[in-house]
Amino acid sequence: METVEGAGAGAHEHHHGYIHRKDEYLKRLRRIEGQARGLQRMVEDEKYCIDILTQVSAMTKALQAVSLGLLEEHLSHCVVAAARAGGRESDEKVREAAAAIARLVRS
Questions:
Q1: Mean of pLDDT over the chain
Q2: CA-CA distance, 56 to 44, in Å (whole number)?
């Protein structure tokens, strides 16, 4: 849970935008964790390169799906709320979102 920036103890608190889908994200991340363990076993067992690369691709797509979901949640909740409030926080949330998008595009 995140507290309102600059607020002291007992201040109004708000949830991150993804909180209503937290269980779904955790399920996806646990599945990805299992995929990573599977990849380790494949390398340990000296499986065929192309088979390993196929699994890496599947894991990458799964991570991208989580990333895009979180980004959508951030834009629709955190950025929209900051835009409604206006001011410096609004500008900062837009900069954060743009930087996150740039990182995703580069990955």
A1: 86
A2: 15
